[in-house]
Design goal:
With 312 residues, the chain is of the alpha/beta class. It is built from 12 helices and 6 strands. Strands 1, 2, 3, 4, 5 and 6 form a 6-stranded mixed sheet that branches. Helix 8 packs parallel to helix 9.
Length: 312
C-alpha cells in the first residue's frame, strides 16, 4: 500500500493555498476593517510600561478563537505558530504575538467600554449592505447556555416541565428568515421569560415575525406592530365548539406553517453550539457572557455571509 512521504522541505513562494487559507483570506477582504478599528482606538490592552497592541489585531484574533473554538492559551500558541492566523490578524512572520493575558485585558476593556454591542452592529451593518435579498421575515427564539459555574450569581435557573433545570444564561436572538443572519441579540439570566426579552429585540421593519408559543400575548404582538411588522406566533390552544374538526384543522395547519419557518433558527443555534463553542459560557458575569455571545454572533455572521456570496 502506498504511503505519503512527509518531512520533505519544499521551496515555495508564499503560503500554499488551502481551503482554510482561502476562507480566512475571503473573510479578511469582506469588511472595511478601518471603520471597526476606529471604535477601539482608545483601548490599551497591555501591562504598564509595555507598548500596546493595535486593537484591531486582538479583535481579529478573538474571532479566530470563536471559529476554531480555542482557549486563550491555545489562541496564543496558534498565533505564534500558524502563518495563516498571523496574516489574518495582521502580524508578519517575524513579529511577536500577544500572550494569553493580552486577550484577557482586551476583553476587559471591551466590557468596561460597552463596545461588544457596538462592534457587532458595525460588522452587521456592513454585512447588511451585501445582502442579496430584501428582508421578508424575522425569526425570534432563545437558547439556554449553561453558566461557567454555579457560583455565578448573575445567572439564573432555566427550567422546563420535560427537562432538568439548568443554571444558565439565555441568548435571545432575531434572525433573518431568508439569509439566516443574526440581526439583534440580547443576553439575560436563564430565568427571564422568552416573550419578555423577545419583545425588546424586534428589529425595525421586520416583516413577518415568527416565534414559538412562549411569545404569545399582546406585548409581543404590540412590539411587532410598533416596528412596522406583523407577528405569527404558534398558538397553544383555540376556541371552538366541541367536535369542530374544521377549527382543529385550521389550528394545526397554522401552527405547522409557523413551526416549519421558525425551525430554521435552530440550525443557527446548532452551528454556534456545535462549531463555535457556545455550549457553555467561558466566563462569569452577565457582561462577560454577553461579550461571548456577541463575538460568536459576529463570527457566525461573517462566515454565513461568505457562504451566501460564494453560492450566489
Amino acid at each position: 500500500m502506498a504511503r505519503r512521504r512527509i518531512g520533505q522541505e519544499v521551496l515555495v513562494f508564499g503560503d500554499p493555498v488551502s481551503e482554510r487559507s482561502r476562507t480566512l483570506d475571503g473573510l479578511a477582504k469582506m469588511l472595511d476593517w478601518s471603520v471597526i478599528d476606529t471604535a477601539r482606538s482608545p483601548i490599551y490592552a497591555s501591562t504598564k510600561g509595555e507598548e500596546g497592541w493595535p486593537p484591531l489585531a486582538p479583535f481579529k484574533a478573538l474571532l479566530l478563537s470563536v471559529w476554531y473554538d480555542l482557549t486563550d492559551e491555545r489562541l496564543a500558541e496558534a498565533l505564534d505558530d500558524r502563518a495563516l492566523f498571523r496574516r489574518f490578524s495582521g502580524f508578519s512572520r517575524s513579529e511577536a504575538t500577544p500572550e494569553r493575558t493580552a486577550f484577557v485585558r482586551f476583553r476587559r476593556e471591551l466590557v468596561a467600554r460597552g463596545l461588544d454591542c457596538c462592534l457587532f452592529d458595525q460588522v452587521t451593518e456592513q454585512l447588511r449592505a451585501k445582502r442579496l435579498r430584501v428582508r421578508q421575515g424575522t425569526l425570534i427564539d432563545a437558547t439556554v447556555i449553561a453558566s461557567a459555574s454555579r457560583d455565578d450569581h448573575e445567572a439564573g435557573w432555566s427550567g422546563h416541565r420535560s427537562r432538568k433545570a439548568v443554571h444558565s444564561y439565555k441568548a435571545h436572538v432575531t434572525v433573518d428568515a431568508d439569509d439566516a443572519l443574526v440581526e439583534t441579540v440580547a443576553v439575560t439570566p436563564g430565568n427571564v421569560h422568552d416573550g419578555k426579552a423577545g419583545a425588546a429585540i424586534v428589529p425595525e421593519a421586520p416583516g413577518t415575525v415568527y416565534a414559538d408559543s412562549a411569545c404569545e400575548g399582546d406585548r409581543f404582538a404590540g412590539a411587532g406592530r410598533a416596528k412596522g411588522g406583523q407577528t405569527a406566533v404558534a398558538a397553544t390552544g383555540y376556541w371552538a365548539r366541541e367536535g369542530d374538526r374544521e377549527a382543529e384543522a385550521r389550528f394545526l395547519a397554522g401552527n405547522a406553517m409557523i413551526h416549519r419557518v421558525r425551525a430554521r433558527i435552530e440550525k443557527v443555534f446548532g452551528t454556534r453550539k456545535r462549531s463555535y463553542g457556545l455550549r457553555r459560557m467561558r466566563w462569569r458575569g452577565l457582561a462577560k457572557c454577553r461579550l461571548q455571545v456577541y463575538l460568536t454572533a459576529t463570527a457566525y455572521n461573517l462566515r454565513r455571509t461568505l457562504t451566501i456570496l460564494a453560492t450566489a
